[in-house]
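User: I'm new to structure prediction. If I give you an amino acid sequence, what do you actually give back? Let's try with this one:
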Amino acid sequence: MASHATQTDTRRVIPLLEVNAASTRKLRRRGLANLARMGHCAPSVMQTLLDASEVEAPWLVKAAGGLPGGIGNTGAECGGVTAPLMLLGMAHARDPLDRGVPVVVYKGHELLRRFTACHGTALCQEIRGDDRLPLRCVGVVRLASERYAETLARDSGDAISPAHQRAYAELFAHFSQHRFHCAHEVLEQLRPSMPMEPALFDAASGFIGGTVFTGQTCSALAAGVMALGVALGGIERSRIRVLRMIGLMAIGGDAFADDRNAFNKTMNLGHRLSEWFAAEFGSTQCRAITQCEFSTDDGVRQYIAGNQVKRCREIAGLVGRHVRGMIASA
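Assistant: Good question. You get back a string of structure tokens that encode the predicted 3D arrangement of the chain. For your 330 residues, that looks like this:
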């Protein structure tokens, strides 16, 4: 595992939410209010969760700024999942392992299960469909904070089957032996050249093995998108500008131009990174790149036997250098 600073008490910025009818109503109202003045899913969800505990952490909102549209606007994991996963990472990154697996992996699987049960899928492109206006995303943002609160409050030790847990434990032991974490490797490369909260490493801890070992978006790409947000992102707070952006969506205009919304620049930079990544490695998806299924013993052993951790480290290195270049150019 890549090392990271420990002097920051990350738990002071973790929303600890009650799960009851009154808090649920409050979260839903706050989620809609933030969406109305921010205009994008992941940062609106992040801001809602921070508001609920009266926490100021604008760097976390910026880090979530490139996640709308499915991590760099690729249509993959929904921002209603990825923003809460960052906070679950901050809550549990330093917990002792549970049967050889990081607690954030159990929590991430619990979050994915609850989110999918609510919306039918965790993929942005499947939630949005072909609608010109992302109306279904409104419901996602409205309910996402509840899924986080339920996940945080629950013991998630049974969120992973014994067979999957055994495979994940073997893979995580292999990563630990090689001091490798896909997302942390990218952040380590960028730390000398950009201001970075040490707690960003905790926030990125659930992005391992393609989002909690599910083989989805490569975690090096996810970390690169988050870093672009921290380094270059702004925060939108204008209802009028959001209304104008929605109006442009309705008429088929360029609603996502950099100047239409303060989060657009980060989202567009993340999308450019994802396009470069797909051209370099053939896909943005961990499972497609490694050709391994991390939830099975055979898949993990295939990964280990092929010494694929070396290739993953090389990919993370290339992502780090490319993001550094993007930041310098911007």
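You can read the tokens as a compact description of the fold. Here is one thing that stands out. The chain has one domain: 20-329.
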